[in-house]
Write a structure and sequence with these properties.
heterodimer, A: mainly alpha, 81% helix, B: mainly alpha, 3-stranded antiparallel beta sheet, 5 helices, 3 strands
Chain lengths: 306, 128
């Protein structure tokens, strides 16, 4: 492929990501109440982090570490109890994230099939899968923590290898969550990861580019938004008034939080759509031909004309 | 083999080949029928029967299945319209921009560049 073809291909990939983002937004418009799911997730995560921070500070005071000059904190600072505490925290946060994303994915897939999901039905579906979701979150957290420990201990070369290993693990488990949510039986973490890898082999490249594309789009929008808010705050502060700056700052922060929730939901819906198409080989309702055009493979194309 | 048996054998071969050939031509005939404007299913069938030299005919079920696939693939789109006979609404199909482009590319690559080629045309003429 020459440079102009590469540019055209990259442009097409960006357009597809943009089309898919718009389709995901249309799906979300039909079930606006589902936006509350990532909001609940973020609030629960923040609560867990605040509680964990309070416990950690209390523990640090108790064992006399806190406030000593030159103290640096690494994962093994508090010994095995610290590691266990860290693992519990990471597992809880991961579980909340997976629970909420699982609920949202289930709702999205219900919508793709023409049903009308609700928050109640979405959360009920996630509750029905609470055991596999928790086990998956535990395994992901253990592996994540092990990789983090390895990264801390090894020199630069080892750190890079460990980081690549972490990336490979994240890619391998890309579709694990939707498989857990849609499988009739309770899938274990290894089963779910195996199915995820098998599916990735079929839709490798295109699907990851699409989801990465949405990440880029949301990042660009966030950066633009932050730049606008900061610019506005600087402008208002130049007028010599403090209260409006504070109001704009707080409003801007709330808006940024809202955007984060919104794009988190969009990204989950697109991932669910990619999964749905890859497994069922038909476009999800609401995405129609956009998904087909983005992920068409020769084998699928032949069936159109057979 | 006697002359009659040979003729029968050749007839069976030609008809079998035609049958396979017709099945592979359905997409081309359906999309071609829509080049000069939107058509209902009945009008598409009439076009195909009248225009194809072998009076190629597909059953309604095959035609509907094919059109559903082409609609899902964004090759054609449809709208509901009142039936001329006063019966239930009928679907009027037309090519989409994607359909026009795909048809054009297919025809260029597989028909014009091959069968309009002088040397191939002469070869074909020599076979009859």
């Amino acid at each position: 492929m020459n440079q102009s073809e590469t540019n055209l291909d990259n442009d097409n990939k960006f357009r597809r990501s943009w089309s898919l983002t718009k389709s995901a937004y249309q799906v979300l418009k039909l079930d606006r109440e589902l936006l509350s799911l990532p909001l609940i997730g973020i609030l629960m995560t923040v609560s867990i982090m605040l509680l964990a921070s309070a416990v950690a500070i209390f523990a640090a005071f108790q064992i006399g570490h806190f406030g000593q000059p030159g103290t640096t904190y690494q994962s093994d600072q508090f010994g095995p109890f610290g590691l266990v505490g860290g693992l519990i925290l990471i597992t809880l946060v991961t579980f909340v994230t997976n629970f909420i994303n699982g609920a949202l994915m289930h709702a999205a897939i219900q919508r793709f099939e023409g049903h009308d999901p609700t928050i109640k039905s979405a959360l009920a579906a996630a509750r029905a899968k609470i055991k596999p979701l928790f086990l998956f979150s535990l395994v992901v957290s253990i592996i994540g923590l092990l990789i983090q420990l390895i990264i801390e201990k090894l020199p630069l070369g080892g750190k890079i290898v460990a980081w690549l290993g972490d990336l490979a693990f994240q890619v391998a488990t890309f579709f694990a969550l939707p498989f857990i949510m849609t499988s009739e039986e309770d899938l274990g973490p290894i089963q779910a990861t195996r199915k995820s890898i098998d599916l990735l082999k079929k839709v490798w490249g295109e699907s990851l580019i699409i989801v990465a594309g949405i990440g880029i789009i949301s990042t660009l929008i966030m950066i633009t938004y932050i730049a606008l808010i900061v610019g506005l705050m600087i402008f208002i502060s130049s007028l010599g008034t403090a209260l409006p700056v504070l109001i704009v700052g707080i409003g801007g922060f709330i808006g940024m939080f809202g955007l984060a929730v919104f794009f988190s939901a969009l990204s989950t819906i697109v991932k669910a759509a990619v999964f749905y198409f890859a497994v069922n080989q038909k476009s999800p309702q609401g995405f129609n031909k956009v998904m087909l055009k983005a992920l068409i493979r020769p084998k699928t194309a032949k069936k159109i004309f057979a | 083999m006697s002359g009659l048996a040979e003729n029968n054998y050749q007839k069976v071969l030609v008809e079998a080949w035609e049958e396979v050939h017709k099945k592979s031509q359905l997409t081309l005939w359906i999309l071609l029928s829509l080049v000069d404007g939107p058509k209902s299913m009945a009008q598409i069938k009439d076009f195909i029967i009248n225009q194809s030299a072998t009076k190629f005919l597909a059953d309604n079920q095959s035609m509907y299945r094919a059109l559903r696939r082409y609609d899902a693939a964004d090759l054609v789109k449809w709208r509901a319209a009142p039936s001329p006979n006063g019966g239930p609404e009928q679907k009027i199909f037309q090519l989409t921009a994607t359909g026009k482009s795909v048809l054009g590319q297919f025809v260029e690559r597989n028909i014009i560049s091959i069968y309009y080629n002088n040397s191939i045309r002469k070869l074909i003429e020599r076979t009859v």
